[in-house]
Amino acid sequence: MTSIIGPNGTFTTETGVTDRLLTPTEVARFFGVDPKTVTRWSRTGRIPSVRTPSGQLRYRESEVRALLNGG
Amino acid sequence: MTSIIGPNGTFTTETGVTDRLLTPTEVARFFGVDPKTVTRWSRTGRIPSVRTPSGQLRYRESEVRALLNGG
DNA sequence: TCGAAGTAGGGTAATTAGGGGC
DNA sequence: TCTGTCCTAATTACCCTACTTC
Model's pTM, two decimal places? Predict the structure, then answer.
């Protein structure tokens, strides 16, 4: 998986689509669940996630949308 | 470790590998956090950084990529 | 030289991870 | 099995002002 860090810190994939990272709370609002549930989804592999150097979880907006659309 | 700062903000090592320097905002967007948080990571030693003569922080793209892939 | 944007500090409130129990 | 809630410690976001960069 190749990605490019853009001039503004954006995250660009091979397809040229600019992506951004969402917090657990933001993802929780999308699905109407508790942020803790989103965290559990990460541990069980139900949703892809990225960890900050300190260990907190972030989620790619494109993947969240894909799950919402019947991933 | 000897290195040369290029005209476009590039960073060239002895191995000839060009490494771009990223601003706190760019790194912040890449990890989905506040730029202030990236600055904090520098002080706590979670991410290697380079300081400009005036004291501002910059980060090597290769280091950021390494951290994103699990440090 | 001017204005807009970004950054470094500090201080405080909010969020998160993790475990445990329901 | 899955989820929401309670707890603590750690981490982060947002507020401000002054300085730097473009």
Answer: 0.83
